[in-house]
């Protein structure tokens, strides 16, 4: 923008200087020539009026030469040419007048309409030729046939106007340079607030809602800065309002979940008793008892997951890390849920890291449970430490996999993938949804659309939060041969590093 402003200023200054120069040159040249023409015409008239009465007509060559000489006496260095029919006399015998008096001028003078003049170029130099007919003083002022021409050299006037043009042209260069300097100053004055506004806009876009710009003056830039500040104020107010509403919603969910725990515990206990005695009940009553038990267990898991995700949102979750053998942790998690025979393990045995064992168990349970529930055999769990500083745990299945749009949202809360991925939903006590952890909360997710075994819709989100709590990530992809693959990556922190921290 600075370059455009400077170029624009220079162009405007250059055009203005050239235009002013052209107009000044034209006016000066016109004034000089007009003054010269008027002087030449008036001088010729006065000299002819003074000398013509003493000339006898028709003149002979000698009297015509004397007449030309007398007319020339009052006209300085100008050359006087007098014609009468075939006779012609020149005041300067050495002057070459051929070609300077044009036929057009002679015809105009011969017509007897008064003095006429014409500017001509002769041998590259400008000349002014003025001609006038001589009329009788008495009667109807008929033309006498005598024609008088005076030739004025215009080289001095040409040199004067050329010198003027050179002077103006020379003055154009400092004018353009001055315009460029003024353009630089103006560009700096204009662009400085624009740069500040751009910097504030970038800060606002980066999340700094407190970014503002100083408003100075009352011009358009000040109005733009004022509008930016008003927009930022409105955005900051909206953000604060949204955050407050979000905090209220989270507190509401946490409070509701907490209040539901006690009645749910009682309901679970009663439902467990009914399920244990279901074989002794009539078929319809037994089915109802099992249904109540399964739905109560599902509701309990949902409440526990809501409380867990609320703790993550509130930043109240802390790691209880210790040196852990990850292969043993994976095997224990699968054995706890009875999945050992359904999963193929490829575990590196010497991988030990400082992690929260319970939260790693939650992650493994969610990833494997979803692979068993929504994928297809074989389900493979692979533990490796390829880089030496990180450990990876891959859970792959042989199912149809997840479409790209589902992979982008698979960790969203309460997201349910396409029903086509749902493979099995069995009765209460589903392995993918059961198996409480140490605090009774696993947060296992499920993509299923119906049935007792589907998860709360929060398990994958909780798994990702647990991974992030360790400084790791979970990524989802597609195996080349088909099937989804979830990859957990955790930093491989050792005991010494943990002690230093």
- Note the overall shape: rod-shaped
Q: Roughly how many Å apart are the termini? A: 51 Å
Arrangement of strands in the largest sheet = 2-1-5-4-3
The helix count comes to: 11
What structural class do helix, strand and pairing data support? alpha+beta
Main sheet summary: 5 strands, antiparallel
Q: What key attributes describe this structure?
A:
single chain; 501 residues; alpha+beta; five-stranded antiparallel sheet; rod-shaped
Task: Summarize this entry quickly.
The chain is α+β, with helices and mostly antiparallel strands and 501 residues long. It has helices at residues 2-51, 61-73, 103-110, 155-205, 220-276, 283-313, 326-336, 357-374, 404-409, 459-469, 495-500; strands spanning 79-84, 87-90, 116-122, 125-135, 143-153, 322-325, 343-347, 352-355, 379-384, 390-396, 473-478, 484-491. α6 (283-313) runs parallel beside α10 (459-469), α7 packs across α8 (357-374) and α8 (357-374) packs antiparallel against α10 (459-469).
Could you characterize the architecture of this molecule?
- The chain is α+β, with helices and mostly antiparallel strands and 501 residues long.
- Helix content is 52%, strand content 16%.
- It is built from eleven helices and twelve strands.
- Strands 2-1-5-4-3 form a five-stranded antiparallel beta sheet, sandwiched between helices.
- A hairpin with a 7-residue loop joins strand 4 and strand 5.
- The longest helix is centred in the middle third of the chain and has 57 residues.
- The radius of gyration is 54 Å and the shape is rod-shaped.
- The chain starts with a helix and ends with a helix.
- About 7% of the residues have low confidence.
